[in-house]
Design a protein that fits this description.
mainly alpha; two-stranded parallel sheet; two-stranded antiparallel ribbon
Length: 428
């Protein structure tokens, strides 16, 4: 509880002081405010409009599904809290207090939700675990999709086929027991191996095109003052990096739906591999927006989640998490020069994010449909299909990624109402 309360307080302060925000899309907007082109009130309203729907429709459903806090639940909320409260001598402490209460409420509310489910006629908490099942398996396809989006469909198909082949080879080697150390068989994670193969192809294609002579943008020089501003606040990042790494080590929170789903299944090592792949893929995006705006992310390149999942002790995780995010900030100028040298890598950041989003939209819709059908056979598929199509026709008031989880929760609520009314029998 102390970890979550402190994360809420510190993250709200970082947002309030225009130092760091979690929502990637908010960073350029906060930069506009820092430059004096956007008023504080407009910034707060924009933050609310951009993040509130994701907190309710994306972060909270995943948090409830796995009984593990998805980091979006807390940090998207603290973005809103920090940017809505005034940036002055009383506004910043107020943001810290509200952020702390928000973190506490999120954790207490989560425990309350779990207890509430036990008293329902239809306890749909276990079926909700199906929401994340397709995500784990389909996640390995995102590098192929990113390659297709950036480097032609043929290269995307090639990447996909190689990743699929690597996955099946890993399955074959596991079943045959071909790998062992000291007589102990080693089991390869097939999705993880496929993911690594796909990432090799993605960055291989991205690094083939070097910057032409005389056409360098030199991000490090152009935005040197913004990089200095981020480095000046490195102590704040070390504090929140340490807290998040520690909370992740305690399995209180996860950085993305994929690793969250794996943690819910008890696969901590696999969750660490998935978190590492995501962190590597997001470095160009986070670095580019940070360098260009002077506003960092409270989770940095998300490597602190990898630290939390692989380091064996919570206090070691706290120390290593602080060191890792310190190194990230200090190396921003070096990363900027690397991105200048390989513009394909820099451009891959947005394609990686788009590919992950598209993949998650499909996987979570399938997972939501499966969960809904377990809760209410037949009716579940009917409801999710109708919910998705009506949401599309209405102009997507609920983001596609959230339709599956939100729809499954809605089916669980409806099923309980129908059972209480005597219209539906309990599923066997």
């Amino acid at each position: 509880m102390v970890f979550v309360i402190l994360i809420g307080a510190v993250a709200a302060v970082l947002a309030n002081m225009n130092i760091a925000v979690f929502n990637d899309g908010l960073r350029p907007i906060v930069g506009e405010h820092i430059e004096g082109r956007l008023k504080r009130r407009e910034l707060g309203l924009t933050a609310f409009a951009m993040s509130f729907g994701l907190v309710v429709g994306f972060g909270i459903p995943f948090t409830v599904t796995a009984s593990i806090i998805l980091i979006h639940s807390i940090l998207l909320g603290t973005d809103i809290i920090g940017l809505i409260t005034p940036k002055n001598k009383w506004g910043t402490p107020l943001a810290a207090a509200i952020g702390a209460v928000y973190g506490w409420g999120l954790l207490i509310g989560l425990e309350g939700f779990v207890k509430l489910f036990e008293h329902l006629p239809v306890n749909f908490l276990e079926p909700m675990g199906e929401v994340g099942t397709p995500v784990v398996v389909t996640f390995m396809a995102f590098p192929a999709l990113a390659v297709a989006m950036q480097f032609t469909i043929k290269k995307g198909i090639l990447t996909f086929l190689v990743a699929a082949l690597v996955r099946q080879l890993a399955v074959f080697m596991n079943e045959g027991g071909f790998l062992s150390i000291g007589g102990n068989a080693i089991t390869l994670n097939q999705e993880g191996m496929a993911l690594i193969a796909g990432m090799i192809f993605l960055f291989g294609f991205a690094m083939r095109g070097k910057q032409e002579e005389g056409s360098s943008v030199d991000l490090a020089s152009i935005f040197s003052e913004k990089v200095k501003a981020i480095k000046k606040n490195v102590v704040f990042f070390m504090i929140i990096g340490a807290l998040i790494a520690g909370a992740t080590n305690l399995l209180l929170m996860a950085g993305d739906p994929i690793s969250l789903s794996l943690l819910a299944e008890g696969k901590q090592a696999d969750a660490g591999i998935a978190a590492a792949a995501r962190a590597i893929g997001f470095i160009p995006l986070v670095a580019s927006t940070a360098i260009a705006t002077g506003v960092y992310s409270p989770v940095g390149f998300t490597l602190i989640f990898v630290v939390g999942l692989f380091v064996p002790n919570v206090w070691i995780a706290v120390i290593v998490g602080a060191i890792v995010i310190f190194l990230e900030v200090m190396l921003l100028s070096v990363i900027a020069r690397f991105l200048d040298k390989y513009p394909g890598v820099r451009n891959s950041g947005e394609n990686i994010r788009s590919a992950m989003t598209k993949l998650l939209e499909v996987a979570l819709l399938i997972g939501g449909a499966n969960a809904a059908n377990m809760i209410a056979p037949g009716f579940g598929f009917f409801f999710i299909a109708g919910f998705y199509l009506l949401n599309e026709i209405a102009g997507r008031p609920i983001v596609r990624m959230a339709v599956g989880p939100v729809g499954a929760i809605a089916v669980g609520i409806i099923a309980n109402i129908l059972v209480l009314m005597g219209i539906m029998t309990l599923p066997q």
